[in-house]
Fold this sequence. Notes:
There is one protein chain. By secondary structure, the chain is an all-beta fold. The chain has a single domain, classed as Domain of unknown function (DUF427) (Metal Binding Protein, Guanine Nucleotide Exchange Factor, Chain A), CATH 2.170.150.40. About 0% of the residues lie in helices and about 50% in strands. It has strands spanning about 5-10, 15-20, 25-30, 30-35, 40-45, 55-65, 70-75, 80-85, 100, 105. The strands form 2 sheets. A 7-stranded antiparallel β-sheet has the order 1-4-5-9-8-7-6, with no helix packed on it. The chain is globular, with a radius of gyration of 13 Å. The model has no long low-confidence stretch (mean pLDDT about 95).
Amino acid sequence: xxxxxxxxxxxxxxxxxxxxxxxxxxxxxxxxxxxxxxxxxxxxxxxxxxxxxxxxxxxxxxxxxxxxxxxxxxxxxxxxxxxxxxxxxxxxxxxxxxxxxxxxxxx
Length: 107
């Protein structure tokens, strides 16, 4: 990356679970952990391990110069809780279509 900014991605050996309002939204034993300079660790979960039927696509889009443009999904009581990079920058291609949540429990 540039100017001392660094992103690393690796397969996590941890099991993660995402629960909101008592409902399990995702559970995976194969998440990717993304570590980025100045940001908290984030776990990117394969779409097969996410309850996509509970999420509604949002019109929100954000741009990161290091990762690309993110798309968001919401729950009725939690706007833009989930995001993914459908077309990430080449340096972070592994996270393509994996979903990331603001709150994740480690198991």
